[in-house]
Design brief:
- The structure is a single chain.
- The protein has 252 residues and is α+β, with helices and mostly antiparallel strands.
- The chain has two domains: 45 residues; 186 residues, NADH Oxidase.
- It is 48% helix and 12% strand.
- It is built from seven helices and four strands.
- Strands 1-2-4-3 form a four-stranded antiparallel β-sheet, sandwiched between helices.
- α3 packs antiparallel against α6 and α4 runs antiparallel to α5.
- The radius of gyration is 28 Å and the shape is globular.
- It starts with a helix and ends in a 21-residue tail after the last strand.
- About 4% of the residues have low confidence.
- The chain binds flavin mononucleotide (FMN).
């Protein structure tokens, strides 16, 4: 064998070795990627046992995503039970929920919201018939509609804002339980704010809303919104996006 031939063979061997190692690294990379993807999917598909997974998967699921099928009463009862365990300053437990659960009562909510929308949007020249119809339909496809209320006791030691926070925590508990059951829900603040007071106080309900909910004149109850609850497809519970927590936190 000549010297030229030997060096040719060495470089060919070197090229083959390089090729094999490149292929091996590519395969290893692919393997690691698929393992990572599998772990991610496993996490995404975990059956509601991991609290963090439920928190991340909780989505506002809107009536247009509801199938219209009834959901089990057990779900709503468990959601309400979870609400009961929310914290409140001085343990005032200031939540009050009015659950509209049958066809007629839910339709009445839809009619109230549609009519209220018509009145307020006509006043500002923004009325849309499609939106009006949607409000009627939203109520029909929901399994339950819960009026989220803050019930302040006379002479409560708590500032109103703290009581609102407590109600919101109760609603989050309900939302998480709904997610665990793969039941859709979302908090709507439609028709909650009386336009006359929108800029003066956190929440002032209109007389029409108070009348609809049978809240007496001297009753310090305030409606903070509506929790629409309905059956939906499992793929409604996808992870969403949020800003990195580092943008929202400072350690000192
Ligand atoms: C107090 C409160 C009021 C809300 N009101 C409305 C509403 O009136 N209309 C609406 O489409 N969504 C409403 N939402 C839902 C938010 O739009 C939703 O939470 C947000 O877009 C984030 O989406 P996610 O819940 O799927 O993470 C409300 C949420 C909260 C907490």
């Amino acid at each position: 064998m000549t010297q030229g031939n030997a060096s040719y063979q060495t470089s060919a061997l070197f090229t083959v070795v390089l090729g094999i190692s490149a292929a091996a690294s590519a395969a290893a990379y692919q393997y690691l990627r698929s393992q990572h993807q599998r772990n991610e999917n496993k996490n995404m598909n975990s059956n509601g046992s991991d609290l963090m997974d439920i928190i991340k998967r909780r989505r506002s699921v809107f009536p247009k995503q509801y199938t219209g099928e009834a959901i089990q009463r057990e779900v709503i009862d468990t959601m309400l039970e979870a609400a009961r365990w929310a914290p409140s300053h001085h343990l005032t437990e200031p939540w009050h929920f009015i659950v509209f659960s049958n066809k007629e009562s839910k339709e009445k909510v839809g009619e109230f919201l549609a009519k209220d929308y018509k009145v307020t949007s006509t006043a500002t020249g923004k009325f849309l018939r499609k939106k009006y119809e949607k409000k009627l339909k939203n109520a029909k496809v929901s399994s339950y509609i819960i009026a989220i209320c803050l019930h302040r006791k006379q002479g409560s030691k708590c500032p109103e804002v703290e009581e609102i926070c407590s109600v919101a925590m109760a609603v989050q508990n309900m939302h998480l339980i709904a997610t665990q059951y793969k039941v859709g829900c979302y908090w709507s603040s439609a028709s909650v704010y009386d336009p006359k007071h929108k800029k003066t106080r956190a929440v002032v309900n209109s007389d029409a809303l108070r009348e609809f909910l049978h809240i007496e004149k001297d009753d310090a109850t305030i409606c903070l919104g509506w929790l629409f609850v309905g059956d939906c497809r499992e793929d409604c519970f996808k992870y969403s996006t949020r800003k990195p927590i580092t943008e929202k936190v400072e350690f000192r």
